[in-house]
Amino acid sequence: MIIRVKTAVCGLLTVLLLLALSGFALAGGPCGQNMPGPNPQEIERQLGEKLAKLVETGAISKDQSERVLQHWRAKDKERQADIAAMKDMSPEERKAYLEQKQKDKPDMEADLMKAADLSREQAKMVADALRPAAPPPQRPLSN
After folding, report:
1. Does the model's pTM come out above 0.85?
2. For 4, left (φ over 0), alpha (ψ -120 to 50), or beta?
3. Backbone angle region of 58, left / alpha / beta, with phi > 0 → left and psi within -120 to 50 → alpha
4. DSSP characters for 89-141?
5. pLDDT digit string (tens) for 98-125?
6. Treating both helix axes as pointing N-terminal to C-terminal, what angle do 91-103 and 62-87 enclose, rounded to 10 degrees?
7. Is 38 a domain residue?
8. Which of 25, 52, 68, 136 is most solvent-facing, going by the fewest CB within 10 Å?
9. How far apart are CA 120 and CA 72, in angstroms?
10. CA-to-CA distance for 91 and 37, rounded, in angstroms?
């Protein structure tokens, strides 16, 4: 009987904690929408460094590197326009819009081939270099 009461109390406390945290997030706390995004100039600098390494190794030419950067800038403008458009949408409209965007997701390598006149192999190398690094795997908590 005591175990059931302890389990019920722990469950109730967990639910209350989750409700409090979700209310904090919805109010615009650290998990809310007021967080600053990544700095576009810093991202472009990092992309430039990655492309410079590919130019140094001879994988792509300097001209192709510039075309890739121009392509990235155009895609960034599209992304900014999408963000601006979604601000005025209801949550349901936003969800539908994002689902449609996910269905229409372009092939990064094909886009790079077309935009920068790259071969399939070059486009794969550039795409692999430009993709953000995967976060390290999280370890399960030990008891």
Report:
1. no
2. alpha
3. left
4. S-HHHHHHHHHHHHHT---HHHHHHHHHT--HHHHHHHHHHHSPPPPPPPPPP
5. 888 888 888 888 988 999 999 999 999 9
6. 150
7. no
8. 136
9. 18
10. 20
Locate 17 and state its tokens. 């904690």
Instruction: Give the position of tokens 């390494």.
Output: 53
The two three-digit tokens of residue 9, written as one number: 């109390």
For tokens 């990092």, what's the residue? 46
The boundaries of the domain holding residue 111 are 59-130
CA Rg value for the chain: 23
Residues 18-67: tens digit of each pLDDT: 455 555 455 554 444 555 566 778 888 888 999 999 999 999 999 999 99
Characterize 106-119 residue by residue with b for buried, 16 or more Cβ atoms within 10 angstroms of its Cβ, and e for exposed: eebbeebbebbebe
Write out the two tokens for 105.
Answer: 């997701």
DSSP string, 43-85: HHHHHHHHHHHHHHTTSS-HHHHHHHHHHHHHHHHHHHHHHHH
Kindly state whether residue 31 falls inside one of the protein's structural domains: no
d(CA 69, CA 27): 37
If one counts the domains in the chain, the total is 1
